């Protein structure tokens, strides 16, 4: 995992983009676009491209020009002044087959996704101190957004990427397809979410605010410390009525042996972030001021079960994530109106193990 300076400022920034006006010149004048697909965002695919002058590699996100895409580009561009947010280098407005497209050129993140990095490590167990450092870095990005009145609304490990492989990569947040400006409480209403990380108020129909990001942070921290989510469908579906009920009630536990040696400070911080009442939930400033985050270099180097559990969950995660990706690639707004294929008959060691433990007395529908 990366080893950053301990005195890293909460608002660490890099140089901001010079202009936020999309270029009308052909992108092919400046970049060589390949057919190599790097990933799929909410609103469009990401392909590899190279600068024709420097030969530097970039990631190109291709979006159909519409109000939602323009909002994504504008907010990502606005936020890319933060060290822990993927930087936007250029934006083009070009026409293809009589349709206008927005082409967003971003730094290429070659170090892989957060959980993938943890799962594939071969140098021993992931530790609580490393989890605290990761959370500190994510919080820097979220604080930058919230200070600029931006709610990301899709915080999850798949949107947290390392800039490089090895120990020198920087963890950065990406994909602003759900992001929206919010200048007061209760200004958001569209039920945008990814099931594992969704705050109870986002399940609708009431309005909500950027505190939904704090709930997602709490879920990410929970998984970092044990290797499985606090809320999931016992049948392996992306989301279910029972899972929604547990989210709305804030019904989760810290089961042993995975949580046996995790510090009480960490558990209390998670509980503060997973408060079902948005007004009582911690703010990003309160999270960053918490000693587990602010003094992460002093957190115990307790070995965690995270690596092992993520590997045991390999059988479940790809199937569920595939269903999510398929749904989200089309609209990814309201899961109540998207049919999710059940994989309840699949043999799944993680689900079976968890069913036998803390979830055994919880609703399983």
TrEMBL record:
Keyword ATP-binding among record annotations: yes
Annotated ATP binding sites: 61
Domain (Protein kinase) ranges: 32-293
Keyword RNA-binding: no
Alphabetic keyword roster: ATP-binding, Kinase, Membrane, Nucleotide-binding, Phosphoprotein, Serine/threonine-protein kinase, Transferase, Transmembrane, Transmembrane helix
Residues passing through the membrane, by range: 214-239
InterPro entries per UniProt: Kinase-like_dom_sf, MAPKAPK_C, Prot_kinase_dom, Protein_kinase_ATP_BS, Ser/Thr_kinase_AS
One example GO MF annotation: ATP binding
GO biological process, one term: regulation of cell size
Catalytic activity: L-seryl-[protein] + ATP = O-phospho-L-seryl-[protein] + ADP + H(+); L-threonyl-[protein] + ATP = O-phospho-L-threonyl-[protein] + ADP + H(+)
SMART domains, sorted: S_TKc
Enzyme Commission number, as recorded: 2.7.11.1
Source organism phylogeny: Eukaryota, Metazoa, Ecdysozoa, Arthropoda, Hexapoda
Region listing for Disordered, in residue ranges: 346-365
Domain of life: Eukaryota
Organism: Henosepilachna vigintioctopunctata
Record family assignment: Belongs to the protein kinase superfamily. CAMK Ser/Thr protein kinase family.
Protein name from the UniProt record: non-specific serine/threonine protein kinase
């Amino acid at each position: 995992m990366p080893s950053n300076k301990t005195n890293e400022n909460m608002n660490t920034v890099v140089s901001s983009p010079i202009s936020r006006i999309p270029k009308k010149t052909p992108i092919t004048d400046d970049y060589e676009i390949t057919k190599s697909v790097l990933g799929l965002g909410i609103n469009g695919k990401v392909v590899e491209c190279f600068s024709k002058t420097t030969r530097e590699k970039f990631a190109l996100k291709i979006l159909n020009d519409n109000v939602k895409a323009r909002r994504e580009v504008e907010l990502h561009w606005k936020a890319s002044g933060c060290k822990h947010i993927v930087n936007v280098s250029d934006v083009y407005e070009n026409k293809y087959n009589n349709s206008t497209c927005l082409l967003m050129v971003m730094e290429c993140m070659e170090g892989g996704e957060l959980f993938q990095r943890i799962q594939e490590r071969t140098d021993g167990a992931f530790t609580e101190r490393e989890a605290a450092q990761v959370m500190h870095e994510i919080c820097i990005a979220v604080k930058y957004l919230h200070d600029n009145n931006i709610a990301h609304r899709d915080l999850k490990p798949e949107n947290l990427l390392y800039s490089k492989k090895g120990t020198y990569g920087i963890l950065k947040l990406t994909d602003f397809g759900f992001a929206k400006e919010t200048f007061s409480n209760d200004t958001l209403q569209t039920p945008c979410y990814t099931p594992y990380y969704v705050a109870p108020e986002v399940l609708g129909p009431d309005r909500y605010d950027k505190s939904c990001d704090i709930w997602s942070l709490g879920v990410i921290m929970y998984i970092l410390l044990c290797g499985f989510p606090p809320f999931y469908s016992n049948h392996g579906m992306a989301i279910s009525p029972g899972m929604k009920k547990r989210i709305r009630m804030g019904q989760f536990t810290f089961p042993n042996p995975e949580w046996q040696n995790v510090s009480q400070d960490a558990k209390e911080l998670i509980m503060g972030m997973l408060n079902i009442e948005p007004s009582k939930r911690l703010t990003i400033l309160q999270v960053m001021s918490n000693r587990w985050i602010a003094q992460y270099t002093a957190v115990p180097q307790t070995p965690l079960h995270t690596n092992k559990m993520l590997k045991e969950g390999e059988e479940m995660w790809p199937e569920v994530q595939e269903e999510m990706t398929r749904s989200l690639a089309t609209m990814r707004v309201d899961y109540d109106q998207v049919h999710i294929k059940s994989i309840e008959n699949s043999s799944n060691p993680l689900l079976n193990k968890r069913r036998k433990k803390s979830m055994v007395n919880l609703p399983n529908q």
